[in-house]
Amino acid sequence: MAHGSTRPTSRDVAQAAGVSQAAVSLVLGDKWRGRVSQATAERVREAARELGYRPNLAARNLRLGRTRTVLLVVPALTTEFFAGVYTGAARIAAQNGFGVVLYPSPEGIGPARDPFASAQAALDGIIASSMAADALTALRGDQLPLVMLDSDPEGSLGAATVNLDIADGVRQVAGHLLGLGHRRLLHLAADVASWTFEVRARELAARVGAVPGTSLLTVRAPISIEGARTAAETALSAKGPRPTAIICDDDKLAAGAYKAVRRLGLRIPDDISVTGLDDLALATAIDPELTTVRLDAELFGERGMQALLAVLDGRRPDGGDIPVELVVRGSTAPPSVP
Amino acid sequence: MAHGSTRPTSRDVAQAAGVSQAAVSLVLGDKWRGRVSQATAERVREAARELGYRPNLAARNLRLGRTRTVLLVVPALTTEFFAGVYTGAARIAAQNGFGVVLYPSPEGIGPARDPFASAQAALDGIIASSMAADALTALRGDQLPLVMLDSDPEGSLGAATVNLDIADGVRQVAGHLLGLGHRRLLHLAADVASWTFEVRARELAARVGAVPGTSLLTVRAPISIEGARTAAETALSAKGPRPTAIICDDDKLAAGAYKAVRRLGLRIPDDISVTGLDDLALATAIDPELTTVRLDAELFGERGMQALLAVLDGRRPDGGDIPVELVVRGSTAPPSVP
DNA sequence: CCGCCGAAGTTTTACGTATAACGTCTCCCG
DNA sequence: CGGGAGACGTTATACGTAAAACTTCGGCGG
């Protein structure tokens, strides 16, 4: 470190104010009622301001044995969804004097560095999306309080879970399409092993299976526009009667489906309906605008952080899934009757 | 903290291995050649593994006076661009034993908490996007090594800068459109006071102004699809000859322009050409695919981190703007000759 | 007038680590 | 055979903070 002048410490402030280091700590830590006079306290604060004093966090953390920092583990930040989650979590954290460090699970970042080395910070707790499964294995073994987002409530032993009511969203989508008269459905599924996607498949099968005379074909694709386009194009080109609607596991897949449909010379929603899930900016950028399920990412983050704070306090986090909302736009219509 | 069993310290490891704490530190810190025997070193490592020892980072940071952690300050994470920057920066950081903490400048996160309180971590340096101007004011006053991304090389006193060659990108876009024969251009500009956008405006004016018989109208819009649509629609509905091409400051604005064009019953690129800048996923999701300028976000992040490492080492970061590339897709064509 | 209490501080200690400074013991060379 | 040079450790210390334990002093009730 070429740092010439070292930063002022609480001892420097003490000297400047003519008091002991302990007094500085008391005043700045707001624990001085009945211990330090009003006048002295003001003098200390003035000295601190004067010197531009900032407490050394490493020292404080060492002393207190906690950091008031939590880690938010998310899959590679490829959409704005997790930006929303972060925003919500950070808001609640800030209100409680906590900081949030983001740990996007590495993808080509390097040889699987563990989150702790990477975040360097010592942590009080972790909020992790179930989609960042690879990072989770590295997390196991440490006994930090953990909150899982969108994870199997049964499977995540011990850890509290906070979930979006994806199942309800899928039911709404399926109900919407079935109500319009669609009977041949294509499920464009994310090629990711994660609970949140399993729920989609399960719920869809249940809801559609309950209606006689329906068919449901599932095709898997990586979550990218190009990957989804390829998968959808192949599925739509297959022999036999064509599906009249495509239900996509998320909006990005839906964007790929749009391209597939267009390539085949078909039109949305006239020839085929498409639905997404997320309600990203993408959903209103494409034409026609996408019928999708709106997820409140910020609320998701808020609830996640609240759950973690509860765990840290020894309280039980309050449960209840976060409601989602079907947003009907121009990409769905009754099937054309040939 | 309800933490029942406290984590093992280096002293615990020492006791288990039958050596002193200092020996543990030497071995685990890989400074033991000629100080500790091969056998003892192995014994220490085994004990550490056995106990699941992890060094207390707060203590280490306090001792060393540095954290090997840098802060990456970015504007609200609303696109995948900064996710790429992070990935690149984190890769280089990891190769050098550094960690990167993300600080998305708060937007509704709370009462302007300063980055240091929020990131809690003590920092060795900062990489900041010029777009996160609000957070920067909070950073001033601290003498941390600073690297600015996409910032005025002249204006950012002292701080090293790493820039994309946006000016060249704009020249390429303008050249492309002028080459196709366009003469009436609309510049859909971002309503953000930031150097990177000023460069676009300046360079565009220079390049277009050099060609006789051209007109260039500038309209500002917030960086959102809906905001851009409104602004573009208003501009296109104005009296007088209509522009034949819209040059957008980024891809999101371009998506808004698409919607405006479509609302007016016009077609891209037949009636009007549109260009973007960024090459986000969005660019290939919309129809027709967007002619835009590809920015290598990861390389940007890598170069930023390399520059910061250089500063930390007392070396001079090597300069040179990062090249960008025009990607011609379906949204541009020669103007229709009425 | 004694003893106690509260105000206003100070002294001291511990947090866990990295490393400088300090012992041994053995070997080898002159 | 004296002593210097490794090899192999250990002891001691500092980093900056928070807080428990201690000191001092004036006032006041009994």
UniProtKB/TrEMBL annotation, chains A, B:
The keyword Transcription applies. SUPFAM superfamilies: lambda repressor-like DNA-binding domains, Periplasmic binding protein-like I. Keywords: DNA-binding, Transcription, Transcription regulation. Residues 8-64 form the HTH lacI-type domain. InterPro entries: HTH_LacI (IPR000843), LacI/GalR-like_sensor (IPR046335), Lambda_DNA-bd_dom_sf (IPR010982), Peripla_BP_I (IPR028082). One of its GO terms (molecular function) is transcription cis-regulatory region binding. PANTHER family: LACI-RELATED TRANSCRIPTIONAL REPRESSOR (PTHR30146), TRANSCRIPTIONAL REGULATORY PROTEIN (PTHR30146:SF138). This is LacI family transcriptional regulator. It comes from Streptomyces curacoi. The lineage of its organism: Bacteria, Bacillati, Actinomycetota, Actinomycetes, Kitasatosporales.
